[in-house]
Amino acid sequence: MSSDSMDILRSTAFSFPAIDNHAHPLLNSQSRDKVPFEAILSEASGEVALKKDATQTLACYRAAEQLAEILEIEKNQDDLWQKLKEKRDSIEYEELCEMFMKRCGIQSILLDDGLGGVSEWAEDWKWHRRFGCTTKRIVRVEIEAEKLLLPLLQPLLDIEDRSTLPSAESYKRLLSTLVKFFGQLSTSLTNSALDPEVVAFKSIACYRGGLNIRTRSALSISITDSEQSNMHGVVESLLQVLWQFKDKGIIRIAHGVINEWIIHWALRVAGECGIPVQFHTGLGDSDIPLVHASPAYMQPLIEDYPQTIFILLHAAYPFTKEAGYLCSVYPNVMLDFGEIFPMVSGSGQRAALREVLELCPTNKILWSTDGHWHPESFYLGTIQARQALFDVLSEIISAGELTETQAVGIVERALFWNAERVYKLDMIPNK
Predict the structure, then answer these.
(1) Count of CB atoms situated within 10 Å of the CB of 46
(2) Angstrom distances, CA of residue 317 to CA of 184, 263, 269, 331, 380
(3) Which residues contact 176 (CB under 8 A, 6 or more apart)?
(4) Could you state, in order of their start, the residue ranges of all structural domains in the chain?
(5) What is the DSSP string of 76-136?
(6) What is the pTM of this model?
(7) Phi then psi for 159, rounded to 5 degrees?
(8) Closest Cα partner for 381 from 413, 352, 344, 409?
């Protein structure tokens, strides 16, 4: 069967309502120039890597042609990317957002509003409802933990110089702080999980040391008075956070054991309250230790929390096969296939989607844009994902390995029904 005859699949792939299960807020109009436009294509660091190298990729060439069509710019120009930037800068910001967001066919967006810069530069998550979609929040665990820990560090600033071991009294104060902190964290996460506007937690452990998170037994996690001897490692981690705070006036929890404990608290609360936990896996910026970005490292953690739903984000690219394997053998693991649109070339997107479908059950696949900052990121993330779904599934049908009816069901589940189920959204597709 040729792809030209697959009218039902084509119509479904390109027009079925979608739930964007992981995205970030758009910039506000006053801050529209705060983040380089090239950020829709790459998370590279530095002027050269982002503005010069990223614009020389196949992903950029393709995106430029697709955006030029909407902005009504002549295609096939050597300086097309620059022309795009000039044209979009000449359009009123709200008009620009409407132009791209309303073309997506997104019925609901689940927004992680813990991305750095969001509170200063971006719109509130509810603001995005103006595009005809519902919105819900995703709570970023590490950011909530930092908010709670910050005021608790203030009374500890007089602790001895780091060149000496803390005195018995200082150690006791640090221990007391940790008991208080984890108590507050448990309460805060529970309140968030019970909030009807919150549908998931999100962890950036991948950025804060990697996904090789040890199990509960390996960490001997406890904050009871009778077992505080188990907390030596986390006390040392807290001291590192404190020294950073004293030196730089900032708090960024990226200090080994304390990060692991925070993840365990979140997984426990999520399992008890029945909400999933999203994990950044694979594709990201230079902060990520790539060797520890594979979800394969998470296998013991997944087994540690069989009642908690794990959602592996970004197709775990380039570790997609590993992610698909985990989904195939653990009932509590699901796989998102976002961010590769538009950051990976078209052929790379199709290859990644084929790897997703190699082993991952089709009732465990979720779609997202990972849209962030600029409305074009949502648009490209949508149209390219729809194209990839059609291209890959039509090939499989042509090979005689799938019926068109089955393929239509896969598209509907990937774009809508799987996310509706796992996040308990109580929605039906718009007509």
Answers:
(1) 10
(2) 35, 22, 28, 21, 18
(3) none
(4) 3-422
(5) S-TTHHHHHHHHHHTS-HHHHHHHHHTTS-EEEEEEE--STTHHHHB--GGGGGGGS-EEE
(6) 0.94
(7) -65, 150
(8) 344
32, 91 contact by CB (below 8 A): no
Number of H helices, E strands in the chain: 18, 8
Side chain identity, residue 32 = R
From the list 362, 357, 431, 359, the residue with the least C-alpha distance to 391 is 357
Q: Which residues of 87-121 are buried (b: 16+ CB within 10 A; e: fewer)?
A: bbeeeebeebbebbbeebbbbbbbbbbbbeebeeb
227 exposed, middle or buried (CB, 10 Å; 0-12, 13-18, 19+)? exposed
Under DSSP, the state recorded for 64 is H
* Fold classification of 3-422 (topology level): TIM Barrel (3.20.20)
* 77 closest CA partner among 92, 90, 64: 64
Residue 137, number of CB atoms within 10 A of its CB: 19
Q: Tally Cβ neighbours within 10 Å of residue 52.
A: 12
- Of 390, 413, 259, 391, whose CA–CA distance to 335 is shortest? 413
What is the H or E stretch that residue 22 is in? strand 18-23
Question: How far is 334 from 250, CA to CA, in rounded Å?
Answer: 34
**What is the distance between the terminal CA atoms of the chain, rounded to a whole angstrom?**
29
Under 8 Å between Cβ of 2 and 400: no
Tens-digit pLDDT string for the chain (431 aa)? 455 689 999 999 999 999 999 999 999 999 999 999 999 998 887 777 777 888 999 999 999 999 999 999 988 788 899 999 999 999 999 999 999 999 999 999 999 999 888 889 999 999 999 999 999 999 999 999 999 999 999 999 888 766 667 788 888 899 999 999 999 999 999 999 999 999 999 999 999 889 999 998 888 766 554 455 567 888 889 989 998 898 888 899 888 899 999 999 999 999 999 999 999 999 888 788 889 999 999 999 999 999 999 999 999 999 999 999 999 999 999 999 999 999 999 999 999 999 999 999 999 999 999 999 999 999 999 999 999 999 999 999 999 999 999 999 999 999 999 999 999 999 999 97
Q: How far apart are CA 212 and CA 275, in angstroms?
A: 22
Q: In the structure encoding, which two tokens stand for residue 424, read together?
A: 């308990």
Q: Which two tokens stand for residue 392?
A: 């890959």
The three-class DSSP label of residue 21 is: strand
